[in-house]
Amino acid sequence: EAGVTQSPRYAVLQEGQAVSFWCDPISGHDTLYWYQQPRDQGPQLLVYFRDEAVIDNSQLPSDRFSAVRPKGTNSTLKIQSAKQGDTATYLCASSPGGDTQYFGPGTRLLVL
Amino acid sequence: AQKVTQTQTSISVVEKTTVTMDCVYETRDSSYFLFWYKQTASGEIVFLIRQDSYKKENATVGHYSLNFQKPKSSIGLIITATQIEDSAVYFCAMENYNQGKLIFGQGTKLSIKP
Q1: Which residues on A lie below 8 Å from B109 (Cβ)?
Q2: Per-window interface: B 62-91 vs A, CB < 8 A
Q3: Can you tell me the distance from the alpha carbon of A6 to that of A88, in angstroms, rounded to the nearest whole number?
């Protein structure tokens, strides 16, 4: 069974640029999560979906971050006008019905 | 408030010995789930083991086991017969029932020496 896949694996931006991250969850997993992991810290939830519906986006900086999961399968997380403080690893995870979460390899973002 | 605390920043042990990593949590919910994940040098986060709050028996998977002390809000991870490849950062995490999100501790870096 294939795990969670993410792309790109790395991204380097100048401040003010936009970037999108893509996630393909494990087949059959209805719940998908996006986490942000700053260096030397634990992951912190940004947003999560059950099928195509947003369940919790309370930690998503709504002025510059957006996330969609239009068909309840793949998902895209977008940062508009990135800031140096957005430098982190962005992790996607999925679970079947809110059970144990399984993580993808992450996207390492560096904003210069 | 929900919080997970790992006070050990780093631990170093010799291969084939047993190591214990500490974790304490705070929650107002009576039903919750506790997890341990490890993050390898490549950045991959791997699920290791889980304890459901209503279960009294400590979970065990392979050479990982848990020391669940509910009155102390503590969930320690025990790794027996450690191997070099166990070197990683270990995260403790909590999920309150029906809330979906994992709350992670700060992580403990484990180094296994030959």
Answers
A1: none
A2: 91
A3: 15
Q: How many CB atoms lie within 10 A of CB A11?
A: 18
A44 vs B: CB within 8 A? yes
Contact A44, A59 (CB under 8 A): yes
Give, as one character, the DSSP assignment of residue A25.
Answer: P
Chain A residues with CB under 8 Å of B45 CB are: 43, 91, 93, 103, 106
**Structure confidence at residue A12 (pLDDT):** 98
A–B: how many Cβ contacts below 8 A?
A: 52
B43/A102 CB distance under 8 A:
no
Nearest CB among B44, B47, B101 relative to A45 is that of B101
CB atoms within 10 A of CB B13: 17
Residue B98, φ and ψ in degrees, nearest 5: 65, 20
Q: List the structure tokens of A71.
A: 């068909």
Q: Report pLDDT digits (tens) over B85-109.
A: 999 999 999 999 878 889 999 999 9
Task: Please compute the mean of the pLDDT values over residues B73-96 and round it to a whole number.
Answer: 97
Q: What is residue B97's predicted lDDT score, i.e. its pLDDT?
A: 86
Amino acid sitting at position B66: L
